[in-house]
Design a protein that fits this description.
It is built from 14 helices and seven strands. The protein has helices at residues 5-11, 17-24, 41-47, 62-71, 89-95, 112-115, 143-149, 152-163, 168-180, 188-198, 211-222, 228-238, 252-265, 298-303, and strands spanning 31-34, 54-59, 79-83, 101-107, 239-249, 286-288, 311-317. Strands 3-2-1-4-5-7-6 form a seven-stranded mixed β-sheet, sandwiched between helices.
């Protein structure tokens, strides 16, 4: 059954929406990029700020794009949408013959349509093939295929590094034991049961035992951390002087990369003190507008629990 615009609005609540719009400092005739379009919440608000504003939307998920198109149909030619990864922002703008833009927003969270789609394999709430690809139409490796290919040590390191899961080695051992018994982990239910047996959590723990493992696999499958720094640097290059980049992260690893990259672009050198000269490329090209990351207030956290871990960092490009 097709979803109406109102149903789409209820399905997904854009995180830190008011704060993003304020920090982007929308211009009446500005050109903006929503590099992670999703269901179009941030994009819709940007376009609604003025009838001469234009926007480029980018997303890997065709289902999300389909919903976003319906939501923003009223804006006509003022919006153009591309089925690409946010890491390809330079190629997208080159294809559109655009040299620079006034602002860029990237919300790095998994959208509600992905978490709530039983067949996508993002959530342990549904029994489904262990997929986790943001672009389900790609030929990229699924989470199940990844677990079949990697060694026990590689799986443990992946879960520990990307999920910050202290029981990573125990989980990896059980995954490989199943694989050796010709019972590979192929569904979300398989993985959830395995992690629940491997990880003994207290009843007072607020998150499900499988949360960190699912997060780690999703990050690995979609190479989320590998492409993040390059995206930030490309985005700053594409901004007009005075243009702004806003990035919303949802876990500490992402936030660390965003923070460090923006600091480097603001001129902070990360070379060892004894180095005779800077080799990390620290040149002041931006000013950071958020000394500390902006987080959702209590009202937003209460109405949208998924916003609780969100952090917003913003910079503006210097002349």
């Amino acid at each position: 059954m097709k979803k109406s615009t109102e149903q789409i609005d209820n399905l997904h609540r854009s995180v830190l929406l008011t704060e993003v719009i304020q920090f982007l400092d929308i211009k009446e005739d500005g050109l903006y990029v929503d590099a992670t379009l999703g269901l179009g919440g941030h994009a819709n608000e940007i376009l609604s700020a003025g009838n001469r504003i234009r926007l480029i939307g980018i997303d890997q998920d065709l289902d999300a794009i389909s919903h976003a198109r319906k939501r923003m149909d009223r804006f006509g030619s003022r919006v153009e949408i591309f089925h690409r990864s946010f890491s390809e922002i330079s190629a997208v703008l080159k294809q559109s013959k655009i040299d620079s833009v006034d602002g860029i927003i990237a919300d790095l969270g998994v959208s509600s349509i992905q978490f709530d789609s039983p067949g996508r394999g993002f959530s342990f709430r549904f029994d489904a093939p262990l997929d986790m690809r943001m672009n389900a139409d790609s030929d990229d490796e699924t989470a199940a295929e990844l677990l079949k290919r990697l060694s026990q040590e590689e799986i443990a390191n992946l879960i520990y590094q990307y999920g910050e899961e202290k029981f990573s080695r125990r989980i990896a051992r059980r995954i490989v034991e199943k694989r050796d018994q010709n019972e590979p982990v192929e569904t979300t239910a398989d993985l959830t049961r395995l992690v629940e047996k491997a990880v003994k959590r207290k009843r007072t723990d607020k998150i499900h035992p499988a949360t960190k493992t699912f997060q780690a696999l999703r990050i690995a499958v979609n190479r989320e951390l590998e492409i993040l720094e390059g995206f930030i640097r490309d985005s700053v290059d594409l901004l007009k002087p005075g243009g702004r980049l806003a990035v919303i992260t949802f876990h500490s690893l992402e936030d660390r990369i965003v923070k460090r990259t923006l600091q480097n672009l603001s001129g902070k050198c990360f070379c060892p003190p004894k180095f005779p000269q800077c080799v990390c490329g620290a040149i002041k090209t931006v000013e950071i507008l958020t000394r500390k990351p902006i987080v959702p207030g209590k009202p937003e956290q209460e109405t949208n629990p998924r916003s609780r871990s969100a952090k917003l960092r913003v910079c503006t490009k210097l002349n």
